[in-house]
Amino acid sequence: MGQPPPSRADRPGPAEPHQRGSLDSLLSRSRFTQQLAELVGAEAEGHFAVMRCRFKEYERVSATLGGKAAEALIDEGARRLLNTIPRSASAARLSDSDLITVIPELIEAPRISSIAQRLIDLCAVPYRIDDQRRPLNVAIGIVISRGNYADLEAILSDASMAQRIASRHNQSQYRFIDLETRNQARRSYELEADFREALQQGLFLPFFQPIAELRSGEPVGFEVLARWPRPDGSFVTPDRFLPIARETALTGELDLQIIEKALLAVGDLAREVPWRSMLLSVNVSANLLEDSGLRERLLELIVESPLPPGWWLQVELIEEALQDTSSAFDTFLARLSELKVTIAIDDFGTGYSSLARLHSLPIDSFKIDKSFVDKIDDTEASSKKLLLTMGALASDLSLSSTVEGVETEAQRQWLLQSGFRTSQGYLFGRPLPLDEAVVELRRHNLRPPAIAAELDDEAQKDDAPRLGLRQRLRRRLRWLLG
Ligand code: C2E
Ligand code: CA
Ligand code: CA
């Protein structure tokens, strides 16, 4: 921006590769809005389409890698957008993470869909920066004007509403503004208000899903999963409220609320198995990791609420979190380690992990994503190969692994034969509220294995630095999880 805008003749057609494509090739925001206002006002020209495109990783990249990396991301987004839109279109930057384009005279939905889909396909190819491959997810809100918009604000607000609904999905999406989208947006605003209130009132609850030993099916710990109780006695699952939490940057607050309650509740579980070593595994969002205040509060919580004897805290981070190369992030992980908290990579295999980072950071465990397990029963073998590769990688790095989403006996058998030891899935138990998790644990009637006591003794011995703390943590975790 800041340079004279290019003439339309300089702009590429959809099929032409655009070499220069970058932020500098966009119109200034004021020039763009002026052009759009003219289109709205012009009787004959009131037919056009507007696409508002949010590059969803912008904020996270900005918070973790800094403004320069975030600008490189939006620059890449601009390049791909310019490679997608027809020559007649104009584009500009609307906000830090949002680009906008207007395509005159285009009102046929299928043609607009194919342009939006083409942008999504282009964005599906990760881009390279600092030797790393990064995702580029885009949420696109589309408005078609057939001369039915009286002012610019109404168009921008509709485009933003459609984009908001498109943003709700993890993957890139486009949405047209229509009655259904408007209704969804209205419900989504209501849900957001309810969510904020519930969070403020501390209504969210931890549910506990067993992490089980594959061979015996016995629980070796629990993952803590957030649930939102509703007045009718039902529980809302995270797929409905996490998008709102992310959009409002409140996932970190939610994490802390859930972790605090889980740390208080774990005593009830521990009473059922006073002799066992057990894992309590909690989810930590990118939002928490990026915020120094929230990170501090988590560390304080852990210090203030020690786990019962034999219990062990693990935090689960998604692979993308490792892209944060700031020293603050590394220090945070080191402080967790000092507090004897182990670190697991969640949904392993679905994101982008750098092997170097996996090696250099104090990572203890992988949680291998359910999507691989789903395909174990397929005749096509690539998922099995990937599972074996991830298992071997964990073993080479001396990490433990837990396979998620095991639902069938056939999956369990294959995993056992392939050397996996621990898993989590409906086959072993669904996420349960505390009282039911206690009953479930009691039902297993667990007895103390002799080796547990020995390992416990060793892990508790701080005055025997025969093994470093990290090694002792890992040894204990490997004993628990395999
Ligand atoms: P996740 O961390 O990968 O958690 C596992 C999810 O898979 C849970 O869904 C669990 O109920 C589900 N699951 C486990 N076994 C099976 C199975 O055999 N089959 C099927 N179909 N599903 C299974 P849930 O509880 O709906 O949570 C979804 C996601 O929401 C979690 O995925 C996690 O990423 C996020 N989440 C949940 N609670 C929290 C939280 O307190 N903080 C944060 N930051 N994220 C959370
Ligand atoms: Ca998890
Ligand atoms: Ca997972």
Describe this structure in words.
This protein is α/β, with parallel strands linked by helices and 482 residues long. It has 2 domains: 22-177, Reverse transcriptase/Diguanylate cyclase domain (Alpha-Beta Plaits, 2-Layer Sandwich); 192-447 and 455-480, TIM Barrel (Alpha-Beta Barrel). Helix content is 45%, strand content 20%. It contains 18 helices and 16 strands. It has an 8-stranded mixed β-barrel, surrounded by 5 helices. It has a 5-stranded mixed sheet with strand order 2-3-1-6-7, with helices on both faces. Strands 4-5 form a two-stranded antiparallel ribbon. Helix 2 packs antiparallel against helix 3 and helix 5 (152-167) packs across helix 6 (179-200). The longest helix has 22 residues, at 179-200. The relative contact order is 0.09. The structure holds ligand C2E and calcium ion (2 copies). Ligand C2E is lined by residues 209, 225-226, 237-239, 242, 251, 254-255, 258, 283, 285, 346-347, 404-407, 424-426, 431.
Question: How would you summarize what this structure contains?
Answer:
The chain has 482 residues and is an alpha/beta fold. It contains 18 helices and 16 strands.
What is the annotated CATH architecture of the largest domain? Alpha-Beta Barrel
Tell me the number of helical segments per DSSP (H or I, 4 or more residues long): 18
The average pLDDT value, as a whole number, equals 87
Distance between the termini: 54 Å
Q: By CATH's scheme, which homologous superfamily of the largest domain applies?
A: EAL domain
Biggest sheet strand order reads: 8-9-11-12-13-14-15-16
Unreliable stretches (pLDDT < 50, length at least 5) are 1-21, 450-455
What small molecules does this complex bind? ligand C2E, calcium ion
Tally of structural domains: 2
Number of strands: 16
What proportion of the residues is helical, as a percent range? 40-55%
Strand content: 15-25%
The biggest beta sheet is recorded as: 8 strands, mixed, barrel
**And the CATH topology of the largest domain?**
TIM Barrel
Shape, per Cα inertia axes: elongated
Text of the CATH class of the largest domain? Alpha Beta
Rg to the nearest angstrom? Answer: 25 Å
Determine the structural class based on helices, strands and strand pairing: alpha/beta
